[in-house]
Amino acid sequence: MYFESEMEMPGGMVVLPLRCTVVKLISGENVMISPIDFSERQLEEIAKLGSITHIVAPCLIHHLYINKAIARFQPREIWGPPQCRKVLAEVPFNRVFGEDRWPFDTKLPFVFIDGLPRINEVVFYHEATKTMICADLCFNLQNPRGWAAPLMLRMFGTYRKFGVSRLQRRFMKDRVAFEKSVRDVLKWNFETIAMGHGDLVVGHGRDRLETALRERGYLKS
Fold first, then answer.
1. Which H helix or E strand runs over 23?
2. Is 101 exposed, middle or buried (0-12, 13-18, 19+ CB in 10 A)?
3. Which DSSP letter does residue 199 get?
4. Residues pairing with 3 in the sheet
5. What residues contact 4, with CB distance under 8 A and at least 6 apart?
6. HSE of 104 in the Cβ direction (CA atoms, 13 Å)?
7. What is the model's pTM?
8. How far is it, in rounded angstroms, from Cα 138 to Cα 80?
9. Is 48 exposed, middle or buried (0-12, 13-18, 19+ CB in 10 A)?
10. Local confidence pLDDT in tens for the 221 residues of the chain
């Protein structure tokens, strides 16, 4: 299930949509990826799913509401990306991707997006629904709001379109490692993309992501 809210940047420059994804697995676990500032109605809907057993911060910059979610849901495991304990010391992570065994390797496998150490994003594939779940690997801001949205999002190459942000280049330290990571993502047979910001991509998700990565020059061949 998807839950959405908004975050307004200072001065109303851009009103950024936020998405949380909750994956209900057949084993009974519920995995919450990228918590948002839930409304009471959303909390009621989540309660109907059962206990939230795992909460995930999918990157080093998607953590604003995680402590609030931890206090509310009391998950068994709290997962973060590499370096999360150093960068996000205020969050009580008890599991780290790449250090601890992820218990859902077959039903909800992940790929660590290497080469961007200030972001350290982890993306997921929900096999049952053929959905790739990410935070900032790509954007689909079709109806952006805020007085600076046209200027800022055009600069990033994500204004009213699906795409990969030009801002990735600013954070990229190892282009070879990044390309290897996204090629691993493209091995998944996903149709839908549920990103952290923007409308869901429904249909041909894998092909659209590959095209967007090539447009940015992130795939050599």
1. strand 15-24
2. exposed
3. P
4. 20
5. 17, 18, 19, 20, 36
6. 25
7. 0.95
8. 19
9. exposed
10. 999 999 887 777 888 899 999 999 988 899 999 999 999 999 999 999 999 999 999 999 999 999 999 999 999 999 999 999 999 999 999 999 999 999 999 999 999 999 999 999 999 999 999 999 999 999 999 988 999 888 888 988 888 999 999 988 888 999 999 999 999 999 999 999 999 999 999 999 999 999 999 999 999 87
Q: Name the 3-class secondary structure at 130.
A: coil
The rounded distance, in Å, linking the Cα atoms of 133 and 58 is: 9
Cα-flanking dihedrals φ and ψ of residue 182, to 5°? -70, -25
DSSP 29-74: -EEEES-----HHHHHHHHHH----EEE--STT--TTHHHHHHHH-
**Rounded CA gap, 15 and 4, in Å?**
13
The one-letter amino acid at 126: H
Cα 175 to Cα 172: distance, rounded to the nearest angstrom:
6
CA distances to 7, 69, 122 from 136, in Å: 15, 20, 10
Residue 120's beta-bridge partner residues? Answer: none
Instruction: Quote the pLDDT of residue 168.
Output: 87
Is the Cα torsion angle 49, 41, 140, 213 positive or negative in sign?
negative
Cα separation, 4 vs 17, in Å, equals 7
